[in-house]
Amino acid sequence: MKFPWQLVTDQRVCYGVGGRAVPCPGTGQDAEDNPPGPDPARRFEVQGDTVTDTWTGLCWCRDANRFEFPFAWDEAADLVAEMNRPGWGARRDWRLPSRRELFSLLSHQHLNPALVQGHPFVNVFPGYYWTATTCARLPGQAWIIHLGGARVYRDIKNRACLVWPVAGPRHDNRISDPRFRSAGPIVQDLWTGLCWAPAARETLSWEDALHAAAALNTANNAGRRRWRLPNVRELDSLVDLTRHSPALPAGQGFGLVPDGCWSSTTSVYEPRYAWVLYPQDGAVGVGFKPGADFGAWAVSGGGSTRVR
Fold it and tell me: CA-to-CA distance for 59 and 37, rounded, in angstroms?
């Protein structure tokens, strides 16, 4: 597993369709048996004006809004490049973060900012931040991430968004082959260790999607695989941002996938909604839980030992 930090969320509360907290056992939701994450005091190392994330090796400006104002995409890249002339923070490799890199900081349990509790950053504005990643289908747009509520979307490059520089090893979207191995209708992702069942073609409500994934755990499947609805990070791990329609790696064997796929992760920004992956471009948005609008794509493996 190349980037295990990418597969686990910090969601610790389960939420019903109406948005209220509910007991987790038997729900199939992300927070059920979700293992505790690392202590932020151990994950992040503060070194003056910079913070190193020990999960990823990335070095971030401690001040998440050091330029104070939003800028267009090209202007943002130029501003960050200027940091390398004097070697700000004793480094000369500052850049805009890729979508995958900025996504790695997100919390799916905390809001305003959507960062893990106890993080050491300052001046995190609860708005949209640029990433360096261009949208493959619409190259005049780039990916942006909302640090208030964790939405991942795209916008035209002349829009003004905030800038959070990063340095260190690049975690881009290119993944070596072979990545996938098929065993009948099941596709194993050798990069993450997850196994994916065929995606449901019919659209379902969120609760029905949770039940549909659990229904794969029949007596005939006992002792082999334990299926569940994936969390939002597991779905995002499938995205290939160099491709579109769908934004999934070539040669993966998934067949047809729905226009939107439910995750087991609730949006705590509005708990009547859950996170959804939109495979056309790879956007991560939300869906209204009672609406029969998206498909179920069951997963097995990873850190989960849950039996439905």
Answer: 20
